[in-house]
């Protein structure tokens, strides 16, 4: 069993930056693919970014490409999402998720474990 805990959310002005962290407990994340997803109020949860277990391949939603960067530190059992040039439309609850097959895909159904989420609010 993997427990995931997100942190680093908060309120920021448009153009600002935040770094989200996803810390795991219960099992090492080194063999898991990891993803970040978000859900804005009244909308479905959507893919943001993902990284394979070895960290070689990363993928991003078009809406965040060039602004967000996903990374992982397997020694720290933590995954990060660096968010720059934030926009009001980035406002959402951000969730991290773990895929035990290691693929790190954009499909929510590929992920077995989810965190509770952290709120990000971007003001204009």
Brief account:
By secondary structure, the chain is mainly β.
What does this structure look like?
By secondary structure, this protein is mainly β. The protein has strands at 3-7, 10-13, 18-25, 33-39, 46-51, 58-60, 68-73, 78-83, 92-99, 113-114, 118-123. β5 and β6 (58-60) form a beta hairpin. The mean pLDDT is 95.
Feature tags:
four-stranded antiparallel beta sheet, mainly beta, 124 residues, globular, 11 strands
Rounded mean pLDDT score = 95
Q: How far apart lie the N and C ends?
A: 40 Å
Portion in strands: over 45%
Total number of helical segments?
A: 0
Largest sheet: 7 strands, mixed
Bin the helical content: under 10%
SS content category: mainly beta
According to DSSP, the number of beta strands is 11
Element-level helix/strand string: EEEEEEEEEEE
Indicate the low-confidence ranges by residue numbers: none
Radius of gyration based on Cα positions: 13 Å
What is the topology?
Layout: E1 3-7, E2 10-13, E3 18-25, E4 33-39, E5 46-51, E6 58-60, E7 68-73, E8 78-83, E9 92-99, E10 113-114, E11 118-123
Parallel strand pairs: 2-11
Antiparallel strand pairs: 1-3, 3-8, 4-5, 4-9, 5-6, 7-8, 9-10, 9-11
